[in-house]
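Quarterly update, task 2.4: phenylalanine-bound model.
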Amino acid sequence: MAEEAVLGFLEKNEEITDSGQFAAERGIDHQDIANIIKSLHGFKLVDAQDIKRERWVLTEEGKTYAAAGSPEVQVFLAVPPEGISLDELQRKMDPTVFKIGRSQAIKNQWVEMGKQLTRKVQDVDDKVKDLLIRIQDGEVVEPKEIDALKRRKLISPQPWKGYSVRKGPKYAPRRKKFATDLTRENILRGDWKDLEFKEYNFSAKGQPVGGGSLHPLLKVRQQIKMIFLQMGFEEMPTNNFVESSFWNFDALFQPQQHPARDSHDTFFLQVPSTTKMLPEDYVERVKHVHEFGGYGSRGYGYEWKREEANKNLLRTHTTAVSSRMLYSLAQKNFVPKKYFSIDRVFRNEAVDRTHLAEFHQIEGLVCDRNLSLGHLIGVLNDFFSRLGMSKLKFKPAYNPYTEPSMEIFSYHEGLEKWVEIGNSGMFRPEMLRPMGLPADVRVIAWGLSLERPTMILYGVDNIRDLFGPKVRTWILVSSRKTLSVASEYKRLVSHFL
Ligand code: PHE
């Protein structure tokens, strides 16, 4: 309606000289008219010039007098023809109205003060109230009348903004609707020829998208994956959580009485409880090395049982994957390899602030002729310094499948102490030779949990916070914190490319 009024008026007239007056004459709210003029001006349908004026508006006090009458009139009306004592009058009236009204009424010579307050005239006009109402209605009043009200603080100036409006370069009596999309219908009807399209607004903000956030474990996993890839490692397939005891333990020269195999540490499967397929000739060689040794070893000297090896379990370490990979590598002509994996493992452990029953392991291995412990230490230094841990210490350790074995410690600047970050070693000949790997082939390997470095990077001191009910809020908070990891990741990617 306001738009039609403005465009329609300009069709026959040169100019709207004052939008305020224009709105008042048509009984349209000025704010509505002003908004339409701004919009039409933006689309160049009209040309608008600002008009700034000072307008008078009633103060709070002014508004009460416009409604209830000026104080002097209120006082005059409260004085009965026979007169009244000041005390009595005061009791009847609002104190401010009484105070202002009395002196103003005396000044106007409407009442006089003798022993009592008495009327001097029969009737009075409330000029102040009338004036206030006229101003309230937006009428223009004489400057000298304004002055008196201004002095009594019954009105105050307010800046007012309106427009004078003429036709603009794209004037039309009706605003054309611009098309925002070219549709199938437009093409079929042929009206695309006449459509005018809305211009792109390149500075418009897009809809905020409430996307998900990656779990920090996934981010750190990605970061570590990039480190391995940079170092020329290939990823091993880790998609089988269910593994046989054979690949998880026996192939690794882990004796069948080893406490880690105990159901206290391992989740065994009920259905299917056993594996169906194992490479039989290799199984024979593994049995032999456990029972009698070979390749310079005396073996364990116990009766190795096939039933134990057949038992299915949830893999307790990703070294089960490494054993499968090394076995299949041994089935072909030997080529050196660098492998890694990062995936889930399961242990039947009591959950506390540092242990979970399922967690992730990171594992790396290098398989080549004549590798030494020096190579292992070199690779570990390279790998961990890329993770930001350059101060390393090694401590002799024991694993059934590695000799020598070393625990890896890193100096934690924040905690100001050495923390254990991983385990490593050189796979034993008792493990490698039955697979069929050549005698001079050595495998250096290491493993660590993914949770540990993630907790260190994100400052989490309770592992349950990584998985428990707090995860949601924690992920949201850490998705902001991720910037440093993300930029590190970017740096890695650019390095890699
Ligand atoms: N499998 C070991 C563990 O679970 C880690 C490891 C991997 C140790 C490779 C030596 C070599 O802790």
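Highlight for this quarter: Residues 317, 319, 363, 399, 402, 423-425, 445-447 surround phenylalanine (CB under 6 Å).
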